[in-house]
Amino acid sequence: MLTVRYARQTRAFLSPPSAAASTTGAVFFFSSSTVQTIPFLPSYPFFPSFSSSPLTSNESQSEIHKDDVVHYFREWFMSRKKPLFDSIFEILRTQDDSAADSAISRLNLRLSETLVLDVLNYEKKDVLSCLRFFDWAGRQPGFHHTRATFNAIFRILSKAKLMSLMLDFLQNYMKQRYVHKVRYYNILVIGYAVAGKSETALQLFGRMRFMGVDLDAFSYHVLMNSLVEHGYFDVVETVAKEIRARGFQNEVTHSIMMKSFCKQNQLERGAEYLRGLAQDDRARLSGIAVGTLVDALCKDNQFERAALLVEEFQRMGLSSMEHAYGVWIRDLVKAGKLDGALEFLKDKQAIEGYVPDVFRYNMLICRLLRESRIEEVYDLLVDMKEREVLPDDVTMNAILCFLCKAGRMDIAMDLYDSRAEFGLSVNCMLYNYLINTLLGDVSIDEAYRLLRISIEEGYFPGEKTFSIIADALCRERKSTR
Questions:
Q1: Please, which domain of life does this record's source organism belong to (predicted)?
Q2: How many CB atoms lie within 10 A of CB 99?
């Protein structure tokens, strides 16, 4: 049985799969840019094991059927799906209010803060359905929305730039005098803070203090973060003192303070603040605060200093440096230092067992694709799968782009045609890859079909892609299209 290392070392220099090869079931990934193939062997962990006879001396490559590969990718894509949550959103999208209420009630959900947060996070881009679920949950006996669930729905509305809807909600909420007074004001402060109305949030906070009531720890931090975001730095210091006086100070406080220093370009003060925390309050210093300063240093083009900072705090033995590592990798990639990012990743994985989140994997994969470094994309996908990192939309789009570059349009198109099954939302980059690759294979009708679908979905191809497909249609005397 061939090992993973041997498989990687014996990539053969072969041409793309011919018609004859496809009839025998031999599957290889071909990179037109490197003229190398990447054989998927049964022993390779990126694919499931297939029953096959032992390799003979004449068999340098193993045979894997296309359908098996498609099935494996589809299973990986489906692993991110949660059937219960899919059912909830299907009900919310397709049924009116009364029917939806009854249908969701029949699911016998055990409502809790955690469940509501998970549901809202699952499809947070579907703002209307999230609002309907939030409203339904709030009307169920025995359940009351918490500050965290209010904060979650406010952030969904804010990210969707539905500020008028959010402010209308807050105005209506202010009329509900039956709500417990302390909770009532906490929710209002959170809402206006997230909406970017920091002055209104401060006025409400002042009214609370006049009435002899106070914010809780969660609300204090939401308010403090909003003040930093909108440049009320003098007030930030005052709120931070209030937080410390009430014993609410924690790693979130430190992270927001670090953001405040960085926004004011007080990087030296930020570094001193971190070192002071490491000496006096190590248990409450997280990698998030370190990552904030690392990001600010990189934006100031101080990469060497940022690298030293990462290593300095890693040696101090912080409980969690994953966020700081992720920030460092992201900033290296954005600065065009891709090889440095990959070297850092491999080093931290080997020594500390570091597992990047899906966003870092996506960033590395997309940049490697752009540079046509196909084998390294393949290795990262293997690593991602082995470490059980669930793919998201960006990952799935990137995998189909990878298949295009590797010369396996048959697999890419099969997965594309099955996109509704695993909820793939195709992006503009993938449409460009698919259309350009089909044109290269002289599949003009199929390329034109994808062009029409992409335009219907609101994606207009790049100027180069559009020019190429127009020329191809003219050559085929299909200019009327």
A1: Eukaryota
A2: 11
pLDDT for 100-122, tens place per residue? 999 999 999 999 999 999 999 99
List strand residue ranges (DSSP E) for 49-123, in order: none
Q: What is the pTM of this model?
A: 0.79
Q: Which residues contact 335 (CB under 8 A, 6 or more apart)?
A: 298, 303
Contact by Cβ (8 Å): 72, 40: no
Query: How many whole angstroms separate alpha carbon 259 and alpha carbon 241?
Result: 16
CA gyration radius, the chain? 27
**What's the token pair of residue 472?**
């191809």
The first and second tokens of residue 198, run together, are: 């920091």
Q: Which range has the worst mean pLDDT, 235-239, 260-264, 319-323? A: 319-323
With DSSP H G I counted as helix, E B as strand and the rest as coil, what are the percentages for the chain, rounded to 5? 65, 0, 30
DSSP code of residue 53: P
How far apart, in Å, are the Cα atoms of 460 and each of 6, 450, 453? 43, 11, 10
What length does the chain have? 481
